[in-house]
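Board notes (copied after class):
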Amino acid sequence: MSLDDTNMFGRRIGYNERKRKRKRNRKVKLAIGSRVRWFKRKGWFFALLLVVAVGALWHSRFYLQQINPLEFRHLQYIEIEGNRMLSWEDVVQSAQVETGMLMSELDADSVKKSLLQIPLIHSAEVESKFPSSLYIKLQEASPILSVLEDGKGTVYSERGLSLPMSMMTALHLPILENESIGKIKQVALFLSTMRKMNKNLYEKVSQIGWSEKDSAFEVFFKDAGFRVMFPESNWDNDLFTLYDALGMGFRKDLLCASEVDMRFHGFAYIKNFDKRCING
């Protein structure tokens, strides 16, 4: 009767366990032997190819870093939305793009900057779409005011840029005082804000100017005999609503006013009031 073996921890190993252990060892040896024989026959060739490939990639790593996948794509489609006065060709030419150009050479910000050079364009959104398309969404400019000088009328957009429009159009717009031509961009922004928030009020504007003394916009309305002073900035809907409310609540007072000051938030001051107007 043979004695049982023990493992490295001193635990006794029986006959069945020794048999299973020998069987596992034989399987491991057979598996290793099979892999060694395969490597001798074919594996060395694949290992050699792997070494060569890794070496080639290592030596060409600097060139691989310079590869730009976009260089293999060309612009095929240009989609334009929102153009009414401008033709498709006008927009593409102004954007300085053309079908067939490399997508890697296409920069959305540069295209937008080029488009905004056109006075007829108020705003532009430009997006490069995968794999080979360019999307342009335009908001065309609209006339907001005009300047009359030497019998000629020049129409200006919301951005304060001149537009190629007729004298008839100029006469139907708010007129900017010639002395305030240096503030045309600020005046255009003020009027475009008024039109957006209170279109009816904007349509009543007859003349507008800038007062350096008061740092305010001087506005004359078609239905009023006084000037209205609006603040230099921070225009909101409450400002224009307050002016509208004056006409309903202080109609008699406004008949004798020479100036209405709207520069202070939430308040309106009627100046040069003549009490004799009320008494007839």
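Comment from the instructor: The mean pLDDT is 85. The longest strand covers residues 121-129.
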